Amino acid sequence: MALDFSVLLRFQDALLKGLLTTLELTLICIVLGCAIGFFVGLARTSDNRILRGVSGFYVEFFRGTPVLIQLFWIFFCLPLLLGTELSNFTSAVIALTLYMGAITSETFRASLRSIGREQYDACVALGLPRWTQTTSVVLPQAVLRAIPTLLSNCISLFKESALVSAVGMADLMFVGSNISNNTARPVEVLTVVALIYFVIAFPLTRAVTFIEQRILTKLAV
Amino acid sequence: MIDRATDPLVSVSGLQKAYGALQVLQGIDLTMKPGERLVVIGPSGGGKSTLLRVMMGLENINGGSITFAGKPYIHAGAKPAKTAIDFQVRRSIGMVFQHYTLFPHLNVLQNLILAPCKVRGEKKSAATERANALLTRFGLGQKATAFPSQLSGGQKQRVAIARALMLDPKLMLFDEVTSALDPELVGEVEQVILQLARQDMPMMIVTHDMWFAKNIASRVLFCAGGVIVEDGPPEQVLGAPKEERTKDFIDRVFHIRQ
């Protein structure tokens, strides 16, 4: 059987809509996940043992279990615990945000730890109060150092978001699967879906490399 | 305030510092008068840098005390973590480190004005004016908007000195500030420090550069094994040391340099 990509032309609108859903979901989870990750990263480097313990458990749990299971658990079990129904969009946002939070917290933690002791010495020698040390010296450098890895985290999340099709959310992957089932053309459809993911992810991975070099050059002292 | 030139600016008494079982400073006693330029020399691991770090309040101590300009500054507690440091007094002291320690995400001007604006509440415009004047004085007038990564080692170290001076310190500590520099860049940094010396800025300098030590010191300490082995004018300690250990060290260092 010859490959026939023309069949996809009929489904342009559906694919576009699926892509927009994927992008919307990814963006929401990136923003919320990075916010959670930032504070969890701080908590993990905190002097407070309880904060360290709770944040450590959260991160290890979400890093150590498959995203698909987290997604199913939140979609099926969380409504039982809360006593209220959750839409598949809400479930997907909660699951991917918590996953993203765990992953990015590690990025923030690593970048906080990468700030050398001599930077703290300089702060002391200049008499900078603790708050100024944190907000003007440590955090800006940590965030700058975190950017390349954060972007990689974002690209991973964009691809991982395809898993939400498993709970019936009409993202790009879900639309692709439907078209594939209806047309019996899985090879053509899934190839095009993969290409769409690639066309968006590839420039971003290039950008990560570029930005990483810029930042490393700037922070090299 | 120091009323008379004979009153000590710094008075160190019985200073002890250990890293675990390793005793780095073993009861240092030292007084320094205003206007003195004290150069500390000695073998690596002899406690020179630790002495400066303690002076800056960067390390807890195990015993002893330091007064600065007649005020209690650092005092040992029941255990090292309980070391009492007067932060107001600490602000009178500036320090420049071997590895520049500029803030890489801030440009030169921002590096200079951060502490005056945040610590002293100085207006940004006033701090910027002072910073630009200092940068011009140190030959860095064109570098105000450059980032540290765009500067040579010598330029970075001059910026670090200017940054410390922005807080009008009453004592400057220089910890091997030329050790990380390429040989051809050492001179430009030493010239800046000599310039400060001519203005009677009190300073304590740890250096391995004996030429520099000889040119800048009003007094030289030879520090080894956590104690001050010899303390005297540069002609004595560098030229005709009385102690055998000092003589050995000086002979070896000058031999290497020849």
UniProtKB/TrEMBL annotation, chain A:
Topology versus the membrane: Multi-pass membrane protein
GO CC, alphabetical: ATP-binding cassette (ABC) transporter complex
Gene Ontology MF terms in the entry: transmembrane transporter activity
Localization (cell): Cell inner membrane; Cell membrane
Domain ABC transmembrane type-1: 19-208
PROSITE patterns: ABC_TM1
BP GO terms, sorted: amino acid transport
Stored CDD domains: TM_PBP2
Segments traversing the membrane: 20-43, 64-83, 89-108, 192-211
Alphabetized UniProt keyword annotations: Amino-acid transport, Cell membrane, Membrane, Transmembrane, Transmembrane helix, Transport
Taxonomic superkingdom: Bacteria
Entry keyword Endoplasmic reticulum: no
NCBIfam families membership: HEQRo_perm_3TM
PANTHER family in alphabetical order: L-CYSTINE TRANSPORT SYSTEM PERMEASE PROTEIN TCYL, MEMBRANE COMPONENT OF AMINO ACID ABC TRANSPORTER
Function of the molecule: Part of the ABC transporter complex GltIJKL involved in glutamate and aspartate uptake. Probably responsible for the translocation of the substrate across the membrane.
UniProt record similarity statement: Belongs to the binding-protein-dependent transport system permease family. HisMQ subfamily.
Complex and partners: The complex is composed of two ATP-binding proteins (GltL), two transmembrane proteins (GltJ and GltK) and a solute-binding protein (GltI).
Protein name (Swiss-Prot/TrEMBL): Glutamate/aspartate import permease protein GltK
Lineage, uppermost ranks: Bacteria, Pseudomonadati, Pseudomonadota, Alphaproteobacteria, Hyphomicrobiales
Gene: yecS
From TrEMBL, chain B:
Keywords carried by this UniProt record: Amino-acid transport, ATP-binding, Cell membrane, Membrane, Nucleotide-binding, Transport
Keyword Aminoacyl-tRNA synthetase part of the UniProt annotation: no
Membrane-protein topology: Peripheral membrane protein
Residues of the ABC transporter domain: 10-250
Gene Ontology molecular function: ABC-type amino acid transporter activity; ATP binding; ATP hydrolysis activity
Location relative to the cell: Cell membrane
A cellular-component GO term for this protein: plasma membrane
Entry annotated with the keyword Membrane: yes
InterPro entries: AAA+_ATPase (IPR003593), ABC_ATPase_HisP-typ (IPR030679), ABC_transporter-like_ATP-bd (IPR003439), ABC_transporter-like_CS (IPR017871), MetN_ABC_transporter-like (IPR050086), P-loop_NTPase (IPR027417)
Stated family: Belongs to the ABC transporter superfamily.
Name of the molecule in the record: Glutamate and aspartate transporter subunit ATP-binding component of ABC superfamily
Taxonomic source organism: Mesorhizobium metallidurans STM 2683
